[in-house]
Amino acid sequence: MVRSLRFAIISDPHIALPHTIVHTPHRFHLVEVSIPAMEQILRSLETQPLDFLLLPGDLTQHGERENHEWLVHRLKQLPFPAFVVPGNHDIITRDGDEHRIGLTDFPQIYGDLGYVRDRPYYHQELLPGMHLIGLNSIAFDETGQQLFSGFVDAEQLDWLSATLERLRGDWVMVTIHHNVLEHLPGQSRHPMGRRYITQNRDELIRRLRQGNVNLLLTGHLHVQDIAQEGNLWEVTTGSLVSYPHPYRLLTLTPQPLGQWQLAVESQRVQAVPDWPDLQITSRQWMRDRSQQFMMRFLMSPPFNLPPEKAKFYAPDLQDFWADISNGDSRFDYPHFPAEMQPLLQAFGAIDEAGNYQPIDNHAILELGQS
């Protein structure tokens, strides 16, 4: 029988060497902590018996070559393999420029971190009978500009189907930057949510189900959330540089009759030099920048409030996104109009029956057969 597999996830670290940091007044990301937080986590992980580390995209602040090179150098010092996939912050334009990498540069720079050929997707055997597939959801228009949301091209989809057929009977999990399942109500249709999901997710899901894939590992949304659609589970991990600065430890264990069990543990970076109260400071940082974000949210479906009403209610929702990011959230605003309350509650950790289901940070998931 295949043994258990233990691995860690650090998502969306947005690595930024100090002299590359871009200061903008409304960004939620605390990229100032990216390197000290990464170092702290890696020092802890290096003492543990891990099979590998996974980083599902947004590895750098804005695709800077020197930030990519810093991360590659650090990951190659680990006592276990590390695997990455590109995020929308990693390849800003298809061809890059003198300071930022392009699409063809990515698998070359990260050649020892998953990639075995020049294409930006790969298959790695983790243990006999256990595999990881890394997909690329970063796509570009005919002018080389990045598409607004994720997209998996036809050539890659066909490669995925052929690879899954070849591996049929083995356990296969897939990592990709953009979400494939919805982690927020109506995410695939919402004007603010579409940015974080794979455009052609229906076709991707069809291919995954044909290949008996049960587990997806994603990032991009900067929230702690676990979603399920039929027998397909997706674990998305929050950003290292956004509240609550999480990372995950996962253990995949074979069960009788070809079943699998996934134990999910989540940790947080509590403090780094110059940020001794990171959890408190970071939550306040997000709160201070929430007004315009929450106004856009309230003016969008399903609320569709006029600007003056959105401005009135937004201050009461200053912690709304921080609570979603933290995972396992519950929302109750009894002083809001009755028609708004269920719409807000739907963004909490509730199942299809409306029951509270706190599985976003710590969970035991029963997965199906491979």
Automatic annotation (TrEMBL):
InterPro entries on file: Calcineurin-like_PHP (IPR004843), CNP_phosphodiesterase-III (IPR050884), Metallo-depent_PP-like (IPR029052), Pesterase_cyn (IPR011239)
Domain Calcineurin-like phosphoesterase, residue spans: 5-223
Sorted UniProt keywords: Hydrolase, Iron, Metal-binding
GO molecular function, one term: hydrolase activity
Record-stated family: Belongs to the cyclic nucleotide phosphodiesterase class-III family.
Record protein name field: Metallophosphoesterase
Native source species: Leptolyngbya iicbica LK
Organism lineage: Bacteria, Bacillati, Cyanobacteriota, Cyanophyceae, Leptolyngbyales
